[in-house]
Amino acid sequence: MIDPSAPDFWSGLFQVLLVGTGQTLYMVGVSLLITVVVGLPLGIVLVGTEAGGLFESPFGSRKLGRAINRILEFIVNLGRSVPFIILMVALIPFTRLVVGTFIGPTAAIVPLAVVAIPFFARMVEIAIKEVDTGLIEAAESLGATRWQIVAKVLVPEALSPMILGLSTTVTSIINFSAMVGTVAGGGLGDVAVRYGYQRYSTIHMVAVIIVIFAIVMVLQGLATLLARRFAHKSRPARAEKVLPALRDGVLTGA
Amino acid sequence: MISVQHVSKTFRSGGTVTAALQDVSLEVAEGEIFGVIGQSGAGKSTLIRAVNLLERPDSGTVTVDGDELTALSPAALRAARRKIGMVFQHFNLLAGRTVRGNVELGLEIIGVDGDQRRRRAFEILDLVGLADKAGSYPAELSGGQKQRVGIARALAGEPKVLLSDEATSALDPETTRSILDLVKTINTDLGLTVLLITHEMEVVKRICDSAALIEGGRIVEQGRIVSLISTAGSRLAHELFPLGDAPRTPGDTVIDITFSGGSADRPVIAQLARTYGLDVSILGAVIETIGGNQAGRTRLQLPGQPRSNTGPIEDLRSQGMLVEIVGE
To answer: Which one has a higher pLDDT value, B16 or A157?
Structure first.
């Protein structure tokens, strides 16, 4: 039990929150970066290798395309259906292999990225599927290669819904990062459990909730702003159509 | 310039097999505007997509400007496509790019450097009358303006052929006319060969030199419009000059006279009345200017059975007019 009337209570709280927030931002930031770097191409390949897709027959083999699509579908579904708490524990040997330890914020990045990649890849897939196939035809008629179509048409045209998808991804990474705290990952989740729960400090608990809420709000606002910036007026309607699908399909899966 | 030979294409989805194109052959001469007209589902969309191989035919060959596209490797096909511009019914502009950005897309794909792209984009936007909209996004434009951007994008790479996939079908009649006039201007000024598909006879009437009628995946009729007009039983000619259903007038003769070129300005009816003393009634008439020539059809009613009117009918025919007896 911590005594709120102790002289160093508030400065202690501030100190703990600062460290916790720093760790959370670090974990979330790095895993987000990895998520985008891996998830974006993964999502593109997922759409592309579908029947009728841009990469339907890589190296001229339709069989290969179908095989790649099935394997990636399987991995994405697996990644999304295993509850995070189980995934986190199951990944411990892998985490140790990559980071050298499974304790601390750096180690927490591994399971966070692993859970967020399939999550974000799905959103990229949904966003890209919304791009009018007529635009692909137009680029093809101009003599574009498949990669030019990806870089000049698919990604830029799907940017707005992808940013919104990314913000949903960040929110769930923050959510999971709190859970990582319970297995000694550090961060705000760790603060909430150690001080708020184990030492019955309601003030710590409330403070953590406020900070997390503030982070989520700021990120959401930023994402909405960016999404609108890239939407060029005619697009938000489309993004709104995508979002409910993202919410229903992806969030419940995690 | 464009030669489509014995092209067939079948679509399979689930258990149903649709023959979209059946042994279609087309010949589009350099510098002409060729219109393929047909109802939706007739296969015209598949046909125009087959010309730049957005839709690869199951069999047959497609040759554009000497390149047999159906025989090319993917890389060579991409290079050949750069000589073929295409405009679409729904414009297919990138929403995230400005008008200029859209026009530059094709040039970026070819690898033209920034400065040159910019210059070319302004040049071509000037041609389509949209230079002041270079910085706007497609969402801020009207349908007609969007199609002008579509045309500018197609022309930026200096193609030799322009394919138009129902380019005016999403536009109102007035905008349609202005877009058609633009296509005609491009055709004359840049010497571009144009192949367009449409379901509107108006389009064919206004700008086409040649036309083909497509039905159920087959070309039913094709040729230069001037000669189609004077072909007996030509369905395209009938569609170009619709006179409606034939009236039932037992005891009288109803004839449709198609005239074009020289016969158009002769006082046909007055002559008939004078020479044969016939009470000629005009039931209907359509006259259009096609390719700079007056052409049209007139439906006349002559008293008496067709048998008793062979004299005047033969007389008209001898003057180079196409005479069809309605209801025979």
So the answer is: A157
